[in-house]
Amino acid sequence: MTPSFDRKRKLDLGASYELQQENGTNPWTGKAYSAQYQKILQARLKLPVYQFKEKLLDAVSKNQIVVVEGETGSGKTTQIPQFLVEAGYADQGTSVVACTQPRRVAATSIAARVADEMDVPLGEEVGYTIRFEDVSDYNKTVLKFLTDGMLLREAMSDPVLSHYSVIVLDEAHERTLATDVIMGLLMAVLPKRTKDSQYGELKVVVMSATLDAKKFQDYFNNAPLMKVPGRTFPVETFYAAKPERNYVEAAVRTTLQIHQCEGPGDILVFLTGQAEIEQACEEIRASAAEMCGKDTPELVVYPLYSSLTPAQQRKIFDRAPGPRVEGGAPGRKVVISTNIAETSLTIDGIVYVVDPGFSKQKVYNPRIRVESLLVSPISRASARQRAGRAGRTRPGKCFRLYTEQSFHEDLQETTYPEILRSKMSNVVLTLKKLGIDDLVHFDFMDPPAPETLMRALELLNYLGALDDEGEMTELGYQMSNLPIDPQLAKMIIASPDYGCSEEMMSIVACMSVPQVFMRPRETAKAADEAKAQFAHQDGDHLTLLNAYAAYAAVPKSEKKQWCWDNFINDRSMQSADNVRRQLTGIMTKLQLPLVTTDRRGNGSFDYTAVRMALTSGMFMQVAYLQKQGNYLTVKDNQVVYIHPGSVIDSKPEWVMFEEFALTTKNYIRTVSSTRVEWLVEMAPHYYELSNFPECEAKAELELAYRRLAHSRSKN
Length: 715
Ligand SMILES: Nc1ncnc2c1ncn2[C@@H]1O[C@H](COP(=O)(O)OP(=O)(O)OP(=O)(O)O)[C@@H](O)[C@H]1O
Ligand SMILES: [Mg+2]
What we know:
This protein is of the alpha/beta class. The chain has 25 helices and 21 strands. α11 (310-314) links the parallel β11 and β12 (332-337).
């Protein structure tokens, strides 16, 4: 990497760039522009941001931070990063213009679009980076779209972000956890990246459709605000006359009505989660099949939620089917999505939006250390953003399934920032790695509750990532290299001590991807039987291990069929394979041994060793069986039940769990049994009895400590 670069030279490069463009040659490829490029260019030139190009570039050249507020569809995300590249802010191999996105699917799809717009192959001059997937070229890429979480990861190895010349923080109003942390980080980095600094000046462009501009300007040292008016096409909004009792049912009904009564154009429906979305997909498909044969055009339905693999998510961009008969009405596409489609995404052809007014939102309760997702009403800002999805490529309509009065009176103006609703252990580890020790005075736009920070520090201390002074330990450094939760990272790093790092990587890989076991409602019994082949009585983690091992043993050409026969999600397994490969790479980099207990290579694992390694990371997520038959979480004393989907049916005395789902009943999910003697041996600092709340588990722990002392005195 060149330590410094000359902005003047780069601007000259910019001039020759334009010269070449005028000659019809693509300066990046040296080839003539394609017909597709010319066609897209005509549409791009009409976008509202074009009138602001000069003003914007002028503001950026004069200020380190600029805030841009532009209506949805005005061309912010796709055009502004390109303006910056054309103006000479990027230089291959030394400085990149980055544009952050809160969501993976937005980062990948926008990168693809912009690569088309610049007439270059995706992954070369224009690329993207999301967790476990990097489609960019260090020496070639000049414009990179990445999730805000990935930028944070990159900052870990490059604390002043030396590889970047401009960071475009897109969708800032979403206030995701990572965006908020990046903003705070930039406040610390920007004074170190001024014009005459080693790596040259770093510019920041903060963008959003609906942001509280004043708050952002104040935060960013009175940065100038640029307003881009005008959405590309008008959107007509309709409200429900009276409140809907069941919003899923109402959404399905509205979608079918649009299909029958409205003109051509695709439909985007917002629901809150996977189960609801799949249910709505099925119902709409079934009704559409009944309509088939009449004059109604064909209808295809795609789900979109974050646990689908990127490949499945990309399906939403497939074209709607053509007319059934020549000259007939064209077919229609319906995308049913969580709020991941609320921002950034342009799904070509969407004309109708159905908005029931709900989304799943993260809620964290530091007292019981539980983070859960609850269905909650959206904010007015979200509702506007959703409506904006309809006017992207032509005039649209938005159907709000709540009353106009409710919109004005019941919805909050903006969504509560995620940082105030999340556990912070990951963030704290990241900040520590970045050398930020004084978390209390870190410049957060909205500081998280002190109790939440305390909980995070405590958790990292119990895991051994931070010492008692709050300093990062060697283990902490190793853990921060893994792009996963600290508990999972700890399990992986500890696993060689139990001789089972290969097993642990398989388990963690399966835990990092969408549902491995499929259970379609109509064939639930057969699916349960298939899963039973892999079931291990000691828990769901071991069951995942068995399933992964079985999958790995099947020849490549037969994997797809095997998955189908065994009710296993083929795409999830492919993703798990990819995640596992990356984990292996990181293990190798950290010089941690890759070892297995399956010495004969036939799947005969030492399950006890694997459970011990699991316990080393999960000793804080443990529940104890009460005499009445329910479980009580250790220390927090919450009554919980093992989720019915778990393979465990024998009610072991001690269990560890991955997830605490607050629904109608408090369920723990992905559960394995553990042993009291491991808990007291591995985590005596956590299971310290002097401050342990009175409960049935306490007597057991006391006994275990006595047994441990006894066996130690004998040795
Ligand atoms: N994949 C695509 N296919 C077709 N047209 C697209 C695509 N992506 C963008 N466009 C066009 O470019 C316009 C600008 O899109 P862009 O994403 O830059 O808007 P934006 O200002 O960032 O909006 P938002 O606030 O909603 O993120 C869209 O309105 C649409 O006309
Ligand atoms: Mg955008």
